[in-house]
C-alpha cells in the first residue's frame, strides 16, 4: 500500500473506523459476559448459603 | 437440534467451540489484513481506494446475513417456541447493527473519492439504511418492553416483517437504476473480479463471519446467564 497515493486518507479512515467499531463491540460483549458471570456466581453463592442448614457444633 | 434447546447443553457446546472460534477469527483477520493491505494490488481505476472494498463488502454481507439469522431465529421462536431462539435473535441484533453501520460509513468513505459524493438516495443505499433502522427498532423493542415474553413476540414479528427488506437490498441494483455497481461475486456466471482482489475479499468475509459467530456465542451465553439471574432475583423477592 502506498501512503502517498491519492485518497489514502479515505482508506485509512475506513480501516481505522472499522477497527474501532469492531474492537469496541468485542470489548463491550466480553465485558458484559464477565460482569454477568460475576453477578451470577454471587447470587448462586448466596442461594447455596441459604439452602445449607447451619452445622451443629458437638460439645467436646 | 432439539438436544441443544437445553441452555445447559448449549453452554457446554459453546464453551468447547469458543476457543477454536476465537483462534480462527484472529488468524483469519491477520491473514486477511495482510492480503488486503500488502498483497492485493492497486486497482487500475480505483487506485488504493479498492482496499476499502475488503472491509466494506464483508460488512455489507454480514449485515444481511445477521438479519437473516435474526429472522430465522424469530420464526423458530414463534413457530416451535425453541427456548434459545429468541435469545439468538436478540443477541444477534447489536452485532448486525454494527456491521450495517460499518457498511454504510465505509461505503460513504469509498463513494466520496469515487462517485464524488458521500451519499445518494438510490435504491441500494436507501434499503441498507432502512436495514440499519430496522436493527435499531428491533433493539428498541427489547429495551422498551419490560415483560420478556411480550418483548420477544413483538420483536419476532418486527424481525419477520423486516426480512422483506433483505431481497430488496440484494436485487435493488437489478430492479432499479442505481449508482451502486451490480453484484460482482455471487453471479450465475461466476465472479467478475480478478483473483488478486477476490482472494483477500473472501478471506476478510470469512474473518467477519467467524467474528460474528464468536461474538454471537458469547452474547448468547451472557443472555442465558442474565435470564437465570432474573429468575433467581424473582425467587429471592418471593421467598
Describe this structure in words.
The complex is a heterodimer of chains A (60) and B (239). Chain A is an all-alpha fold and 60 residues long. Chain A has a domain at 20-44. Chain A has 1 helix and no strands. Chain A has one helix at 8-51. The longest helix of chain A is centred in the middle third of the chain and has 44 residues, at 8-51. Chain A is rod-shaped. The N and C termini of chain A lie far apart (82 Å). Chain B has 239 residues and is mostly helical. Chain B has one domain (18-182, 191-238): Four Helix Bundle (Hemerythrin (Met), subunit A). In chain B, 77% of the residues lie in helices and 0% in strands. Chain B has 7 helices and no strands. Chain B has helices at 7-39, 53-79, 85-115, 123-144, 148-162, 165-175, 195-238. The mean pLDDT of chain B is 92. The chains are: A mainly alpha (60), B mainly alpha (239). At the A-B interface, helix 1 of A face helix 2, helix 3 and helix 7 of B.
Keywords:
heterodimer; A: 60 residues; mainly alpha; 73% helix; 0% strand; B: 239 residues; Four Helix Bundle (Hemerythrin (Met), subunit A); globular
Quick take:
The complex is a heterodimer of chains A (60) and B (239). Chain A is mostly helical and 60 residues long.
Mass-distribution shape of chain A:
rod-shaped
Name the poorly predicted regions of chain A.
none
Number of helix segments of chain B? Answer: 7
- The fraction of residues in strands of chain A falls at under 5%
Rg estimate of chain B, integer Å: 20 Å
Shape assignment of chain B: globular
Oligomer: heterodimer
Distance between the termini of chain A: 82 Å
The averaged pLDDT of chain A comes out at 87
**What is the largest interface, and how many residues per chain?**
A-B, 29 and 35 residues
Which percent range fits the helix content of chain A?
A: over 70%
What's the N-to-C terminus distance of chain B? 36 Å
Helical amount of chain B: over 70%
- CATH class assignment of chain B: Mainly Alpha
Q: Compute the number of strand runs of chain A.
A: 0
Provide the succession of SSEs of chain B: HHHHHHH
Structural class of chain A: mainly alpha
Biggest sheet statistics of chain B: none
CATH architecture identity of chain B: Up-down Bundle
Average pLDDT of chain B, to the nearest integer? 92
Amino acid at each position: 500500500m502506498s501512503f502517498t497515493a491519492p485518497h489514502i486518507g479515505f482508506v485509512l479512515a475506513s480501516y481505522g473506523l472499522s477497527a474501532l467499531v469492531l474492537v469496541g463491540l468485542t470489548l463491550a460483549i466480553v465485558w458484559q459476559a464477565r460482569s454477568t458471570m460475576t453477578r451470577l456466581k454471587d447470587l448462586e453463592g448466596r442461594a447455596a448459603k441459604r439452602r445449607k442448614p447451619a452445622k451443629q457444633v458437638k460439645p467436646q | 437440534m432439539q438436544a441443544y434447546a437445553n441452555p445447559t447443553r448449549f453452554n457446554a457446546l459453546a464453551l468447547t467451540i469458543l476457543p477454536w472460534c476465537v483462534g480462527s477469527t484472529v488468524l483469519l483477520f491477520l491473514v486477511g489484513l495482510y492480503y488486503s493491505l500488502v498483497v492485493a494490488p492497486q486497482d487500475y481505476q480505483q487506485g488504493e481506494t479498492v482496499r476499502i472494498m475488503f472491509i466494506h463488502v464483508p460488512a455489507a454481507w454480514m449485515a444481511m446475513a445477521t438479519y437473516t439469522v435474526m429472522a430465522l431465529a424469530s420464526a423458530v421462536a414463534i413457530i416451535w417456541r425453541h427456548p434459545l431462539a429468541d435469545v439468538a435473535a436478540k443477541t444477534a441484533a447489536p452485532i448486525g447493527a454494527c456491521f450495517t453501520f460499518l457498511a454504510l460509513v465505509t461505503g460513504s468513505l469509498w463513494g466520496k473519492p469515487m462517485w464524488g459524493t458521500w451519499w445518494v438516495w438510490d435504491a441500494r443505499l436507501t434499503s441498507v439504511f432502512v436495514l440499519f433502522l430496522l436493527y435499531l427498532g428491533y433493539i428498541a423493542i427489547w429495551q422498551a418492553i419490560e415483560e420478556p415474553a411480550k418483548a420477544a413476540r413483538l420483536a419476532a414479528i418486527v424481525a419477520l416483517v423486516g426480512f422483506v427488506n433483505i431481497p430488496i437490498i440484494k436485487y435493488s441494483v437489478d430492479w432499479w437504476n442505481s449508482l451502486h455497481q451490480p453484484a460482482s461475486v455471487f453471479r450465475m456466471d461466476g465472479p467478475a473480479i480478478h483473483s488478486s482482489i477476490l482472494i483477500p475479499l473472501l478471506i476478510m468475509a470469512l474473518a467477519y463471519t467467524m467474528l460474528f459467530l464468536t461474538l454471537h456465542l458469547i452474547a448468547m451465553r451472557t443472555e442465558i446467564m442474565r435470564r437465570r439471574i432474573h429468575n433467581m432475583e424473582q425467587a429471592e423477592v418471593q421467598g
